[in-house]
Structure formats: structure tokens, C-alpha cells
Design brief:
It comes from Actinomadura bangladeshensis. The protein has two domains: about 70 residues, Arc Repressor Mutant, subunit A; about 160 residues, Up-down Bundle (Four Helix Bundle (Hemerythrin (Met), subunit A)), CATH 1.20.120.530. The chain is about 70% helix and about 5% strand. It has ten helices and three strands. Strands 1-3-2 form a three-stranded antiparallel β-sheet.
């Protein structure tokens, strides 16, 4: 276990379990612990300076989320990324993010739109600097604004789905200059639609942006797979017949 994997803060009781879960979860989602890697409970407990009891509970939570697979020998394995699951997750995101825009757009004022533009410019700067972790944070903040009206459990679900999507993209595709230019143009188009108050254009922009992101990656990592979930969600949002509007 790498020495860089440490718990950022100490706590007691239930809070300690939550902190361990959040910390190990982040390491899995950002690729520090890649799919297929093993995590020994005893070694991780020593690294974090905690007992096995809260660690076991945190592992159980990660297992329920599908991020860890546990074994009787007290070693856990980071789950592989299943392309069919990713297809379903992106399909769900297309539907939920479209709903988020429809609910939030009427309340997007000049201040919030200016905030989005600041996030967009920061993303460009961070991409040029190659600071991908900070870029992902700015990217999250950008998209959070146009779904701000969504609350409670639905917002938590949307956030979790986005994190699982990022794990797939991070593990399977290097952010290249050309890809980033395409993404920047898509983000700009989305922001312009929101600034003009055009709900239909904004919904189409987010749907096509999400679809393009995952379909481009799947074309390289699983070219034989037919992304039924993504294409179905696109047809539901865009109202296009099968085979159209989803390329």
C-alpha cells in the first residue's frame, strides 16, 4: 500500500467510518486504486492508523456500491468496470441531467451564469496546465450549477452517477488536446443555450455532450458493444427515431 494513501482527518465512531469510506471511495473513483487492484485490510488499517472494525464497515459500504469485492482472506479487490453498467449509468445521466436543466433554467440568473462561465474558463486554464484532478473538480462545479434546482436524494443519485462515469473515462481514455477542444466547445454551446434561456437547445446540448463522451470512449475500449441504454435515453430526450440523433 502506497504511503500516499492516508486518511485526511481523524474522527471517532460513525464519523470515522464515513471518513474512511469517503477516502477509499475517492481513491477508487480517481484511479489511484485502479480496477483489479487488491487492498489488504490489515495493511490499510495500519496506513490509516485505524482499527479493523470501522474499516470493515467502510468496505461493506463500498461493496454495496459495487466498487469493492471482498474475499475471506481479508483482502478486497477493486471491482472491474462493466461496460453494460456504464451504458446504463450514462443513459440515466442523460435523462436526469436533462430534467435538471428543465427544472433549474427558470431560476438561472446572471450571477449563476457568470459563475458557470468562470468555471468554464478555469477548466480551459487547468487543461492547458495538465492539472486533471483540479480540472475534474471545475468540471463538476460547472455542471452542478445547471442542476442546482434538483435536491435531496435525486441530487445525491446524480452526483454518484457522475462520479462512476468519471471513473470509466479516467481509466480508459487519456484526455487529449483534440478531445478537450471538442468538450470545451460543447460546454460553451451549453452555456450559450442557458444564457439565451433556450431550454430545448440546452437539453439537447447536455444530452449530446454526455452521449458523445461515452460513445467516443466505448468506440476505443469496447467497439463490439451496442450502447442500448445511451441510445434509448437520447431518443427519449431528443424525440428522434431509432438510428437518428444518437451518433
Amino acid at each position: 500500500m502506497s504511503a500516499e494513501i492516508g486518511l485526511p482527518q481523524r474522527a471517532d465512531g460513525r464519523r470515522l467510518v464515513v471518513d474512511i469510506h469517503a477516502h477509499v471511495r475517492r481513491l477508487i473513483l480517481d484511479g489511484t486504486l485502479p480496477p483489479g487492484s487488491t487492498v489488504a485490510q490489515a495493511e490499510l488499517a495500519r496506513t490509516l492508523g485505524v482499527s479493523r472494525t470501522p474499516l470493515r464497515e467502510a468496505f461493506r459500504m463500498l461493496q454495496e456500491e459495487g466498487l469493492l469485492e471482498t474475499a475471506p482472506n481479508q483482502r478486497a479487490r477493486v471491482s472491474d468496470i462493466d461496460v453494460a453498467y456504464v451504458d446504463q449509468v450514462y443513459g440515466a445521466r442523460i435523462l436526469l441531467e436533462s430534467l435538471g436543466i428543465a427544472l433549474t433554467l427558470p431560476e438561472l440568473d446572471a450571477e449563476r451564469l457568470s459563475e458557470m462561465r468562470a468555471h468554464l474558463e478555469r477548466m480551459r486554464t487547468l487543461a492547458e496546465a495538465g492539472d486533471w484532478r483540479s480540472w475534474r473538480e471545475a468540471h463538476h462545479d460547472f455542471h452542478a450549477v445547471h442542476s442546482a434546482r434538483v435536491g435531496g436524494q435525486v441530487r445525491q443519485i446524480m452526483s454518484s452517477l457522475a462520479e462512476h462515469c468519471q471513473r470509466y473515462i479516467t481509466q480508459n481514455r487519456v484526455l487529449e488536446a483534440q478531445t478537450l477542444d471538442v468538450a470545451h466547445n460543447e460546454h460553451t454551446k451549453l452555456l450559450e443555450a442557458l444564457e439565451s434561456g433556450d431550454q430545448s437547445a440546452a437539453v439537447e446540448s447536455i444530452a449530446r455532450h454526455l452521449a458523445r463522451t461515452v460513445l467516443t470512449t466505448m468506440a476505443h475500449t469496447a467497439p463490439e458493444y451496442e450502447p442500448v441504454g445511451v441510445r434509448t435515453a437520447l431518443r427519449m430526450v431528443l424525440g428522434t427515431p431509432p438510428g437518428q440523433g444518437d451518433r
